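HUMAN: Can I see a protein plus its fold?

ASSISTANT:
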Amino acid sequence: MYNIEYRRVGSGGGWPTTLLDARDAATYAAELQSHNPQLQGPLIIVGHSAGGHLAVWAAQHQRSGPAPLAVSVAGPLDLEYAATQGDHNIGKLIGGSQADLPMRFALADPSSTLQTKSRVLVLQGTDDHVVPIAVARHYLNDVNVGTPPLAKMITIKGATHTSLVTRGRTGYTAVINAILSETKIRPAPHLSCSSCGAIGASCGAPRVAP
């Protein structure tokens, strides 16, 4: 597992640096897998919140290597719609509004990039008031225009924006189990949580698991 870090808004990031950092990290992880037989297995990029957006965008724009499964946990995947719902962080990433910078919005928006190379799993809590479930539904309506569908969503009842990635809170174990079920991966015993059986630590940054 690789924990991807990227330059954030206010720390050298923003347009287009943050996006390119995520893309390059995903590409590098895929190249490592291609050249190292011991790393064979499904390639998965997982991110929470802003990291969920970057996970899907990086998978769509990965330059080489095997196509990953992109998992967005409460990520704003329809940027234009999310911005209309009051998500001011999107304008900070893009450097302005959709009206002023429509091309940047289109380039950064996973719902505007329709490619079938990577599968997308959207995990969304019903009680998320930071990135409302309506944003995820808009994304699915945008991208699932063909057969088979590009993305699927699992809705987790009662989960909030942060409970999905907080051990012991509503939805945390469901997130882990959904990823394992989608990839047919069995958790390594030494990574299992002794209290809830889930694996790994939680972090907003995208993670790559080969």
